[in-house]
């Protein structure tokens, strides 16, 4: 039954990631454009923020 459990979320939409840092939607997209957020391209015109990298940035950890 463990395999039927809800899968772990690995990436979130840009506004969700921004909200984690106290940003509104517009500022979130601006931060993504400016390179402040790590972005992965999921499909044409669709971008996501990988949670592991984003949490590391928010916690002040440096990129490896």
In short:
The chain is built from 3 helices and 3 strands, in the order βααββα. With 64 residues, it is an alpha+beta fold. The radius of gyration is 13 Å and the shape is globular.
What this model shows, in words?
By secondary structure, the chain is of the alpha+beta class. The chain has one domain (11-58). The protein is 38% helix and 17% strand. It is built from 3 helices and 3 strands, in the order E-H-H-E-E-H. It has helices at 14-20, 25-33, 51-58; strands spanning 11-12, 40-43, 46-50. The chain has a 3-stranded antiparallel β-sheet. Strand 2 (40-43) and strand 3 form a beta hairpin. Helix 1 (14-20) crosses helix 2 (25-33).
What are the defining features of this structure?
64 residues; alpha+beta
Could you give the order of strands across the largest sheet? Answer: 1-3-2
Alpha carbon gap, first and last residue: 36 Å
* Main sheet summary: 3 strands, antiparallel
Percent of residues in β-strands: 15-25%
Number of domains: 1
Give me the number of helical elements: 3
Taking all residues together, what is the mean pLDDT? 90
Low-confidence stretches: none
Structural class: alpha+beta
Shape: globular
Written as H for each helix and E for each strand, in order along the chain, the element string is EHHEEH
Q: What's the number of extended β-strand segments?
A: 3
Helix content: 25-40%
Radius of gyration: 13 Å
